[in-house]
Amino acid sequence: MPSQNLRDDADKYLMQTYSRQPITIVRGRGAKVYDLEGREYVDFVGGIAVNVLGHGHPDLVQAIQRQAVQLIHTSNLYYTEPQVKLAKMLVDHSFADRVFFCNSGAEANEAAIKLARRYGHERHGPGRFEVITMKNSFHGRTLATLTATGQEKVQKGFEPLMPGFAYAPFNDFGAIESMVNEKTAAIMLEPIQAEGGVYVADRDYLRHLRDLCTQQDILLIFDEIQTGMGRTGTFLAHEQLGVKPDIMTLAKGLAGGVPIGACLAKESVAAAFTPGSHASTFGGNPLACAAALAVCHVLLEGKVLDQARRMGEYLAKGLADCKDRHRIVKDVRGLGLLQGMEVETDARAVVADALARGVLINAATERVLRFVPPLVITQPEVDKLIDLLDILFNQRPTAGKDSHH
Q1: Given CB 3.0 to 4.6 Å as the disulfide criterion, which of 14, 205, 247, 308 pairs with 221?
Q2: 3-class SS at 208?
Q3: Would residue 306 show up in a list of annotated catalytic residues for this protein?
Q4: What are the CA-CA distances from residue 387 to residues 88, 321, 405 (Å)?
């Protein structure tokens, strides 16, 4: 539990935008974190898919320390080495030719939306500005990105929403095909709808989208903020899905916990941004870029990605076996170490029960548990989660497809 003083001060001084779990985390190591009392928790939240290298990874810690001593910030009025090196590394390992750096996923998506509009204006005139996004998607909390987010609960109370967005059902190509018109500048989607309940895009659907966009000179934007950086077992999720976008956004895991966002694009698209058309004071500062370079080096060396692939398969199998044992589990879905479990009970109550027993998990929706642990998670740590879910589901009224477990 947080100290009463800390809770009182948090209640008094912070804007009340979060429902926090009743613990104060003070340190972490690998895939474990520790509270004020020294109690240990296995972390299947990973800072919401951010801590890809876990907590306290030596390469990341040393990179931040080295850079902090040298130079933290200069602005984009000057060149800095870490920024240029990181841009080169991201280009070398993706479809893209150019990168714009900012501070968060929402800002990366803002940049993508602005770039798509600018490209549409330049190629087809001011009438080409609309972005089609998916129902159930999540793209951020700024006014443009919450409008792009296809969930009313995120938009409620912030009307009037920004014009220029339309919403299609996910994985339904026919619906999108019928919506495309002369106003359509871009189609934007997550390869896996993580916040929306962990729904994976169908490969054929993505291929049809790619063909449609190519034929009509419409930009295909992949929001890989939660799915990128090894989360699904490859450096980027779309590597497994067989389709390349025109624009892609990254954030969350990119610097392993230091705030950074990136908007990547092909040369023909990136050319729409010229000096003065978009900017960010902190974007791509030396500290964040040094951290991101360290994360990229570790991931691209391959050992951590191999671990993520193995553990992703192991976690998916463990969750599927758990579904077979418990009626309360309706579905298990995901890719790699981004897994969702749909349950016929209050997911938030399961989160609270797991916390009390030393495992941090998260509810993506009222009925979906989400598991996004650090990529360095181990087999015994996954076993602990599965054993705990068995215990928690056995305690619930509709649990138990068989009685011997």
Answers
A1: 247
A2: helix
A3: no
A4: 44, 11, 11
Question: Is 138 an active-site residue?
Answer: yes
Nearest residue to 189 via CA among 228, 231, 152, 136:
136
**Rounded Cα–Cα distance for residues 282 and 401 (Å):** 53
Q: List the catalytic residue out of 44, 246, 252, 371.
A: 252
Report the length, in residues, of the chain. Answer: 405
Block means of pLDDT (10 residues each) for the chain, 405 residues, are 84 92 95 96 98 98 98 96 98 98 98 98 96 97 96 94 97 97 98 94 97 98 98 96 97 98 98 96 97 97 94 98 97 97 96 97 96 98 98 75 41
Choosing from 223, 246, 371, 393, which is the catalytic residue?
223
CA distance 230 to 234: 5
Domain extent, residue 384, equals 4-56+303-394
80 and 208: one domain?
Answer: yes
Query: Is 252 annotated as catalytic?
Result: yes
Q: Is 157 exposed, middle or buried (0-12, 13-18, 19+ CB in 10 A)?
A: exposed
Do residue 208 and residue 126 come from a single domain? yes
pLDDT number for residue 302: 81
For the entire predicted model, the pTM comes to: 0.95
> What angle do the packed helices 286-301 and 58-70 form, to 10 degrees?
150
Residue 62 lies in a domain: no
* Number of domains observed in the structure of the chain: 2
In the structure encoding, which two tokens stand for residue 311, read together? Answer: 């553990």
**Per the domain annotation, does 400 fall within a domain?**
no
Which of 244, 272, 301 marks a domain boundary? 301
**Active-site hit among 95, 129, 138, 273:** 138
Question: What CATH number has the domain bearing residue 389?
Answer: 3.90.1150.10
Please give the single-letter amino acid code of residue 91: V
